[in-house]
Amino acid sequence: MKKDLSIEFLGVRCENPFFLSSSPVVNNAEQISKALDAGWGGIFYKTVGIKGMDECSPRFDTLTDGSQQWNGFKNMEQISEMSLEQNVEEIKKLKKKYPNKVIGVSIMGSTEEEWIKITEAVTAAGADMLELNFSCPQMTSHAMGSDVGQNPDLVRQYTKAVVDHTHLPVVAKMTPNITKMTVPAIAAAEGGAHGISAINTMKSIANIDLDNITGKPVVNGKSSISGYSGNAVKPIALRFITEMNQCEDLQTVQFSGIGGIETWQDALEFILLGCRNVQVTTSVMQYGYRIVEDMISGLSHFMDERGIDSLNELVGIATKNIIPAEELDRSFQIIPTINESKCVGCGRCYISCFDGSHQAIEWDYENRKPIILEDHCVGCHLCLNVCPVQDCITPGEVVFKDGRRNNRSGEDVVKQLAYV
Amino acid sequence: MTRTSVLEYEPTKIEAYDFRRAMEEASRCLLCEDAPCSKGCPAKTDPGKFIRSIRLKNVNGAAETIRENNILGASCALICPQEKLCEKECSRTGIDRPIQIGKLQQFAMEHERALDKTYLSKKDTYTGKRVACIGSGPASLACAADLAKEGVEVTIFEEHQKIGGMLRYTIPPFRLPDSVLDQDISQLEKLGVKFELNHRVTPAELKYLQQEYDQVFVGAGTWQPKKLPIPGADLPGVVLALDFLAQAKENHKEMAPLGDVVIIGGGDVGMDCAATSKLLGATSIYNVFLESLEGAPAVQSEKDFVFKLGISLISEFKPVEFIGNGKVEKVKFQHITNESTILLKCDTVILAVGQKMSEDTCSLKESEHIFIGGDMANGGNTAVQAIGEGRIAAAKIMESFK
To answer: A329-415 in CATH: which number?
Structure first.
């Protein structure tokens, strides 16, 4: 199953919304060719600077639950290891070979002059759009990366300098290492940015090496704070995207979503919250470019099942359903039900309800069965989240709080849970 | 035929989980309330607790729990019929398949070995009390460990040259390497337990020991093999399972070629004899027993193992005659219900039809000053059952000190 997943982003037609983000997965033309052949709609070429970087070894670390699945990933790489001139050659080669793929290029300077120089060189090389890297958290210069992204005046100034020197669409890439992303995002828009991409990596220390008593990765006995990515940061990315998409001053910019995308579902979540483009790195570092096959196939099947013909129909439709906490309907409790024939008698619901909630599940030690005490149950659904058996504990009866029924039936509430 | 993991009689290494595989398996554990696996262990090794420790990256804690509860923790990890005990009770079975508890236990014990850890320490609750344990099998060792931890001075009397009883002399090295049993025994030595080897305690000496020691525990096992009352049973070439297994362990490189082997008996010992014969190069092997295939008392994993080694299992036939001139040459079997007969050519017949107590021990009864456990008490069961009984006896002995 392969549907038409094409979508326009900043006036550029993309064959699908799946892009690779500026990172080690898009270092050079040869490497990127394999990615584009695998089906990625486009890329943001690894950030081009004036000079190549001097990198440390080792430079990665992972957070796992003990299995091979990475929950989070920490990296210490900076921008491209190649010079501006070398990268320009690679971009030219790439654009010549793939005229129909979208070659975005991430760039970064440390002064206005540098930003302009790189902009002109990359524009001339044939790039389709520019992404301004205001967000790498592990640069060895404080005039670059997330230190710039945290300063709205510099963001505005550098964006304007770039926009004034190129005809290409410009995306400003935001750092999550900030309380309100809307502030630098508005500054970028004021500087003329057409799009915002978010998030870059979170500043982190993922693990402490207990033998060396320092962070990981250990570089000659020391370590540094650096960027954290992977599935663990997806919730944070979705939050920033939503806040920006709901911000009145950002209604004219388009969004590219980044942060822990591994599956078509992750990508769709970003699209539903307002992104016309999504970018991926960490899961590609773990599984390779081929994961795009299942993104394309999975999203196609989803659209087919829901009778959706164009991705445009999905962009941002979930945004309106994210509302302030004070506006949530707090008039009812949904009491869970336990399917006794599915219950394997582990007692995890009992433990979690007693230790972590409202002591609303009794444990029958003789028969190894949980019993829900409806009088105590507040409908928090911790039990449902901890149960290891699929569909064993499910939402059950809707109970309205005293005097708050307002002529509604339980079904009226449950209906709101369903996909519209 | 599927390749099996064990293809040598005396492998240099038994396959074990590494940290990552152990974490993956521990992540499957449902971490039950009032864990049923823990209730399924006769020795009270408490897998529910030690798997939770592994899941929470506390491998030391896991090994410590195992050690505190089961002085033969490393050996049990390899030889326990988990499928009949802890794993049989596992809640995860309701979803797919049980947690591999034995493999996780082996992982924790391997951690202890690799880091040369000592988790047990001596208290002085019963300093000055002295207990003699007769036999050095699982029951005695478990009894001795629980007593020694509370400060009791324990001496173990063993008639053989080495410590460990049946585990040492009959379980083949591809199931339980000596090094693993030694790892367990070294914990007892660290607790100060004394061993009197090559020392057979006669009934007369037992009376003497009762005066010398505050209490006596007897776990002398069932070492007297049962024989078959059929013609030709005394022919050369007809050997007893325990003798065969012991001889293989002692000196397998110098054993005469086994030739065509017929094993009689469908229990775990019979399966061990079959696998041992295969790994020692027997020409052909038939394992024949009275029971149906599913009814044969060996655990399924042992039957699977023997099957994977390519050994023929013949169910529901009983031997009626050993035939031969000066040595056994053929065995005649008859079906247990119909007229079918089989005549198997053989050079070696191994009888694995059970053991009983030796004559001087079978009259012993538990009393105020004699405690009994292990195969002697239960008629022949698992090592972990013997450990449980040894621990119960230790608790009774300590109760008598109050």
So the answer is: 3.30.70.20
